[in-house]
Amino acid sequence: MNRPIRVLLQTTIPSSDDDWHIGRFSLLRDFLAGETDKSGSPMFEVTARDRDEVGRPDQVLSALDTSKFDELWLFAVDTGNGLTGADCQAISRFRRRGGGLFVTRDHMDLGCSVCTLEGVGLAHYFHSKNREPDPSRQSADDTGSPSILWPNYHSGANGDFQHIDASEPLHPVMADPDAPGGAIQFFPAHPHEGAVGQPEHEASARVVAKGHSKLSGRAFNLVVAFEASSHGGPAIAQSTFHHFADYNWDPSLGAPSFVTDVPGDGMAHSLEARRSIRQYVRNVALWLARRPINN
Fold this sequence. Notes:
single chain, 4 helices
């Protein structure tokens, strides 16, 4: 019997009731913690936490490379100061020693502290740092929220779902044997997603899923996967943490007071969309630990 995969779910902000603290990802945490293998044994041992105070190395992140964690799911919900240099260096060493790394952020410059992470940091494009290489994409997609600047791809309302396109060849994290065509079909939607892409000269990375703006119709990247290589363990760059937030899986659970977008109810009425995102989460958690996905 394999031991449980040790997963760290971590935000880049200190605990704050009126923000995207780790408690707002409780459905994700509970889903992973409740997954069992064919023998009924837990598949994942989940630790969920917010960072320590801003401006000082986080006691866990700054020593991640010496920890027993197998993978880090980093929710970059900060406005630019969420990771110290010591944190980024330890996270990079963690991946170099073979650890799995999942990094997600949101629109504009939200989460731009991830830019200095080796490899996967360069897969994240922001407004004032590491901009999308295509100048035509340096403009607003979501025009309904003028205070939120690009990148801000509009995939739908919080609480609704979006149809996604898995890239060929199908990547293991996008596999869904119970869906038509055998691929993940749906992600939760968000009115202003961030931007990700394959970093230049990064042969181990490729875009594995795309979405489409409901305002402009433009395709945009949702997921970039980095294969394990001599540079380190497997990694994922994801366009927005809203694909995993309680509010996007079930808006009745609430959001911080600064969220003013009117939510939808598509997820509540689609068992298939709810199953799809959970299948994706399971896939990613197993793939990052280099475990078989179909067990």
